[in-house]
Design goal:
six-stranded mixed β-sheet, about 30% strand, alpha/beta, transport, binds adenosine-5'-triphosphate, Alpha-Beta Plaits, four-stranded antiparallel β-sheet, nucleotide-binding, ABC-2 type transport system ATP-binding protein, Rossmann fold, ATP binding
């Protein structure tokens, strides 16, 4: 759906994006993570056709987005700071969107009133920040986009609304093959939604992961010995020992479950357990020396 190749974008002498590439499959959810100033908004605005990159290419279904209204009509973009026209009510905004977006769906708009339960004749600017964000989602879902680009969209929503919005996002992907790119400072906030995760840091893509892949190919294993711990168990091929307490060791190790079990059974431990592995552990392990950038994403 989205192919970005070596995107570079500068603001004066600051490189906000530096040779960033990514690929987003149709009907998937791509989570873009990064600390403040990492370049997330800049990348999302290039995807939404608001900014133009200085170098590199970006296409959506094979077509460029910048100055391409036909592609933009298929995209709903919810920016981190949402702008609404003065005095516009929710209904006014809906009427406006209807003239712009061919996918606009009146029935869906009216049905979603049950979810968002804000009176449609309220002036949007008079609503609270969280309510304005709800309106942004309400309108975005109603225009049946093929792609939703969401910049820190859950900020300011209360926990119940977050849950409802997440459910709606997932059902749009499952039922209509919608694609989503969603940014966040916080991996925990979006890890349950995403199929892929990309981590930006200081304008560069540090790491991209298919979350199903990692689940199948990385394991956390706890071992206990009733004799001296074999010294060669700490060799790099076995992965990283993240904890050592007396004769108990915990490793993060690459490979299928069977491979990891047979790798460590060779050392004849008295106990071998496969433990659940969190994304935090995976990313910190993968990032090695650069883990400071990743650790922030779990705070
Ligand atoms: N319009 C602009 N003019 C000048 N510099 C900009 C502009 N927009 C972004 N930048 C700079 O580009 C870098 C990346 O900014 P960006 O907004 O993309 O980061 P971000 O990852 O979205 O950050 P945050 O999580 O804080 O919103 C920052 O150093 C920022 O100061």
């Amino acid at each position: 759906m989205i192919e970005a190749h070596m995107l570079t974008k500068c603001f004066y002498d600051l490189k906000a994006l530096d040779k960033v590439s990514l690929s987003v499959r149709k009907a998937s959810i791509y989570g873009l993570l990064g600390s403040n100033g990492a370049g997330k908004t800049t990348l999302l605005k290039i995807m939404a056709g608001i900014y133009q990159q200085e170098e590199g290419e970006l296409s959506i279904e094979g077509k460029p987005v910048f100055e391409n209204p036909a592609v933009k009509r298929k995209i709903a973009f919810i920016p981190d700071q949402i702008y609404y026209y003065d005095n516009f009510t929710i209904d006014d905004m809906a009427r406006f969107y209807k003239t712009v977006y061919p996918g606009w769906d009146d029935k869906k708009y009216l049905k979603l009133e049950e979810v968002f339960s804000i009176e449609r004749n309220r002036k949007i600017r008079s609503l609270s920040k969280g309510m304005q964000r709800q309106v942004a989602f309400w309108l975005a879902f109603s225009l049946n986009p093929e792609l939703m680009i969401l910049d820190e969209p859950l900020d300011g929503l209360d926990p119940i609304m977050r849950k409802k919005v997440k459910q709606l996002l997932v059902s749009e992907v499952a039922e209509r093959d919608m694609t989503i790119v969603i940014s966040s400072h916080n991996l925990r906030e979006i890890e349950d939604l995403c199929d892929y995760i990309g981590i930006l840091h200081k304008g560069k893509m540090l790491l991209q992961k298919d979350l199903d892949d990692y689940k199948a190919n990385m394991h956390k294993v706890q071992l206990a010995f009733n004799k001296e711990i074999p010294a060669d168990i700490f060799k790099p091929e076995n992965g990283e020992c993240i904890e050592k307490r007396g004769s108990v060791l915990i490793f993060i190790s690459r490979g299928s479950r069977d491979e990891v079990v047979s790798r460590f059974m060779a050392y004849k431990p008295v106990i071998l357990d496969i433990l659940p592995l969190t994304l935090e552990e995976v990313f910190i392990y993968e990032m090695g020396g650069k883990d400071y950038a990743v650790k922030q994403l779990f705070d």
